[in-house]
Amino acid sequence: MSSKSSISEKHTPKSGVLSPSHETDPEVAIEGTLEDFEVFKKTAEGVDFRTVGWPRATVIFLKVIFATGVLSIPTAMFSLGAVGGALSVIGWSMLNTYTAQIQGDFRNSHPGVHSIADMAKVVGGPWVKELAGVLFIVAYVLCTGSGILGVSIGLNALSHHAACTVWWSFIATVVVALTASVRKFHQIGWLTWAGFASIFTAVLIVVIAVTLRDRPAAAPQTGDYELGYYVIAYPTFAAGMVASCTIFVSSAGTSAFLPVISEMRNPRDYRKALYTCMAIVTAAYLSFSLVVYRWCGQWVASPSLGSAGQTVKMVAYGIGLVGLIVSACLYLHVAAKYIFVRILRDSKHLQSNTIVHWGTWLSCTFGLAAISFILAEAIPVFNYLLALTGSICFAPLAIMLPGWLWLYDHPEYRRGSAGKQALYWFHAAFIPLGAFFLVGGTYGVILEIKEAYADGLIGSAFACADNSNSS
Predict the structure, then answer these.
(1) Average pLDDT for residues 340-351, to the nearest whole number?
(2) % of the chain exceeding 90 in pLDDT
(3) Which domain holds residue 77?
(4) Confidence class of residue 42 from pLDDT cuts 50, 70 and 90?
(5) For position 90, which CATH number holds?
(6) How far is 401 from 437, CA to CA, in rounded Å?
(7) Does residue 359 lie within any of the structural domains?
(8) Number of domains forming the structure of the chain
(9) Which of 5, 72, 156, 177 could tie 369 with a disulfide, CB 3.0–4.6 Å?
(10) Beta-ladder partners of 252
């Protein structure tokens, strides 16, 4: 038996993934046994998916996280107040960064996994895997829907409502599906640069513009008015949970990073990309949202690109439209790639240019795009759609499951020193925290949606009205 085979047997547990011990064994890295467990193989004959460097991975991560979040956080600030909102942005960003680190470390300790669902199988078996897979798909289908909704609002603004909003949403869906059908993250890379630059510039224009106005664009333009800016606010339970979910979900989509790791040239560079991405995102979220909330108060629009008046709104959407499309494209690509790999994994069609390969891939992208379109029209308010995604999907995926992953890889901490036991129970607390957010957040969002319908703030599903709101 060859040395390579011996090493593989030594470090491969019955579950079919590598144990964490390989990280300290240089012989494993030299012999390349990790490659045997990767989903996408380095190949000269088929499609080589392993082409993403860490700088490009950073930009992909930035585009996954930054866009819809920065457009919704100023609205959440109104419910929580400036101090509560700022602390919430910092706290959730730090937690989401740490749980993303846990997921990446777990993936690199078990390189046979491709998605968060594969990780769930390692720690909980096939039933937990299927549940995580469903939540993953639902999460990114809803995120795609929020992106489609943002694009349709932008097209409405640019066209002065020249067509029905449903028609604009349909056009947005087709464009998003076509761009998401590019097979490799590396090929989407140039889109992510353009997308991040466009949305960052658009938001910066709005941030500057709101500070140059005497009063918010949506406020009464004559007479006295209430700005609605609070340093400390006292929201109802439902409003507080919706705001917390909105801020949480703005940086919680880290499970989308995992398929990208499988296409990185060196998966060990993941932490570089993660830390760079989250540092930029947190700084931008905090500064942009606080400025917009300070100058707009309760009159902030959702998405926030409409907060500085019609002219600036058109300029911002004109510049930021590419970013909104690329965001939705990435969300759809991630969800479709998960199903695609599930169907064709260990098949010759996974990395071959066959009819089965292309038929499966295009069916995944356009099928999920159609579902996203339907959901975007059924829940036609931007911040509610994002908050619902956070409570139902990302609370289990980005809080509960990472805690479980850490406990699985560090069982010895439970009976170790006092410091190790404290760390063990700290990570164990992620599970009830996520459960609280799952139940409480979903309840709050549903209650807020119900009240919004009753107050006439939301039109009927598939209505032609502009689906942005001002509070």
Answers:
(1) 81
(2) 34
(3) 50-454
(4) low
(5) 1.20.1740.10
(6) 13
(7) yes
(8) 1
(9) 177
(10) none
Do 305 and 208 touch, CB atoms closer than 8 A?
no
Neighbours of 178 (CB within 10 A): 14
The 3-state secondary structure of the chain, one letter per residue: CCHHHHHHHHHCCCCCCCCHHHHHCHHHHHHCHHHHHCCCCCCCCCCCCCCECHHHHHHHHHHHHCCHHHHHHHHHHHHHHHHHHHHHHHHHHHHHHHHHHHHHHHHHHCCCCCCHHHHHHHHHCHHHHHHHHHHHHHHHHHHHHHHHHHHHHHHHHHHCCCCCHHHHHHHHHHHHHHHHCCCCHHHHHHHHHHHHHHHHHHHHHHHHHHHCCCCCCCCCCCCCCCCCCCCCCCCCHHHHHHHHHHHHHCCCHHHHHHHHHCCECCHHHHHHHHHHHHHHHHHHHHHHHHHHHHHHHHHCCECHHHCCCHHHHHHHHHHHHHHHHHHHHHHHHHHHHHHHHHHHCCCCCCCCCCHHHHHHHHHHHHHHHHHHHHHHHHCCCHHHHHHHHHHHHHHHHHHHHHHHHHHHHCHHHHHCCHHHHHHHHHHHCHHHHHHHHHHHHHHHHHHHHHHHHHCCCCCCCCCCCCCCECC
CB-CB contact of 171 with 376 (8 Å): no
Q: Say which amino acid occupies 42.
A: K
* Res 19 pLDDT > 60: no
CB atoms inside a 10 Å sphere around CB 393: 26
- Would you place residue 132 in the very low, low, confident or very high pLDDT band (cuts 50, 70, 90)? very high
Residue 462 in domain: no
Let me know if residue 461 belongs to a domain: no
List of residues 6+ apart from 257 with CB closer than 8 A: 61, 64, 100, 103, 104, 270, 273, 274
Q: Cβ distance 314 to 162 under 8 Å? A: no
| Model pTM score | 0.81
The string of pLDDT tens digits covering residues 360-409 is 999 999 999 999 998 877 766 666 777 788 888 899 999 999 999 999 99
The model's pLDDT over 419-443, given as tens digits with 9 standing for 90+, comes to 999 999 999 999 999 999 999 989 9
Distance CA 465, CA 165 (A): 6
Reference 405, options 423, 426, 427; nearest CA is: 427
Instruction: Give the residue among 459, 26, 122, 55 at the shortest CA–CA distance from 265.
Output: 55
Choose between 212 and 187: higher pLDDT: 212
- 332 within domain boundaries: yes
Question: Is residue 324 within 8 Å of residue 199, measured between CB atoms?
Answer: yes
